[in-house]
Hints:
By secondary structure, the chain is mostly beta strands.
Amino acid sequence: MVKRLLYIFVCFWAAAVLSGCMKFETNIENLIKAPRLTAEQTDIHEALQKAIGISDIDFKYPKSGKYRSAFVMYDIDCDDVEEALVFYSDPHEESDNVRISLLDYTGNTWRPVFDISGPATEIDTVEFCKFTPDKGAYIVIGWSVASSRENMVVVYSYENERLNSVYSDGYRVMLIEDIDHDELDEMILLGRTRAVKAGTARLVADDDGTIKTIDSSSVNYYFDDYKKVSFGRVYGDAVGIFADGSTDDGMLVSDVFVLGPDSIDSLMVLYDYEPLTLRSSQYCSDINEDGIIDIPMQQSLYGYEEGLAEENVYMTSYYNFNESGDLIRTYASIINEQAGYMLKMPDSWEEIDNITVTKVNGEWIYSVYIPETDSFEEVLRILAHNVKDPFDKLEYENYFEIASRGPFKYYAALPKEKEADGYSLEAEMVDEMFNFI
Ligand SMILES: [Ca+2]
Ligand SMILES: [Ca+2]
Ligand SMILES: [Ca+2]
């Protein structure tokens, strides 16, 4: 490692000397972070240097998103020639805040057009947005604010050779989508406010030439932080935002916001944010591959304690909202996290809330409760066997192998006498039900 660092250091030093730049950079981290400039970047750098009159600017790199360079090229004013944005800070200035310089390419040379200071010392992300039909792109910069859990987004317009801040707000998660397919972008911000524990979800778009918050909705108040946020179909043609968050005590919870051209509405609020979606694992995803994103929920199996406890076994179900805001179950499974598999409940089983699991010597025995006889009837057992451990072939005579992964072989067994009417399984069905997690 030391050798490699030294090599990078020497290369950089040599490059600095050869380019006539004699400033001796001693911060190894900066050396590694700073890639060598391309010829175009060098031209831009030189033009910028000349304009601001200093030679030792520090480049700033956006931390996330598509544009992670201190030099971002984009045709902002739609004249078919790319402008350059340079992010830097001036070591001679009191403020460490990042400055943005916009340079235009005219007559084969780079010309600094406008230079503006940002509100923070780091950039989270950079995006370009088409908010209005008659103007060029807006520059969207997410600023990382060191003293705050929230980032700050600032939208800049570029008009008459000036960058103007036209909108700003706090956010934790920012998404830019054309939600209504009119070829203009909308921005969705998810965040927290200091005033209330719950966050807000906001829809930001152009309203007659002004970029503004069109609508907002509160966020499920069980949220402490966001874990995964995605845009997708909610039902029919309706689209929305699926947000998975973590709670204070590390559980997962979800909220779903249905989006219209002028509206953002939490659907979980219809359930008064009941802890319906509180669970130990699983994110929103299109688990049954029908194009609509499914929301996971967990309920204790029959005979287990209610709520979340370590020894509990759950039915992990996935739900969709319909147009009236009702939740419809689209998929149900039992997850054995320790053994690393998920067992999908077959569609042929009419009632699945009467399925339960008994754990016997590391084996999971799946049974169905039959109310008429007030008894449990076994339907399937699954054994995850580590091949390093002894295996008594006689004891497991009627077991058949269904899968293997790493040192584990997975065996299933079906009861010889099938007592549970409507719940009997065949080996091929077990194969379809079994999935690794
Ligand atoms: Ca241009
Ligand atoms: Ca749109
Ligand atoms: Ca789905």
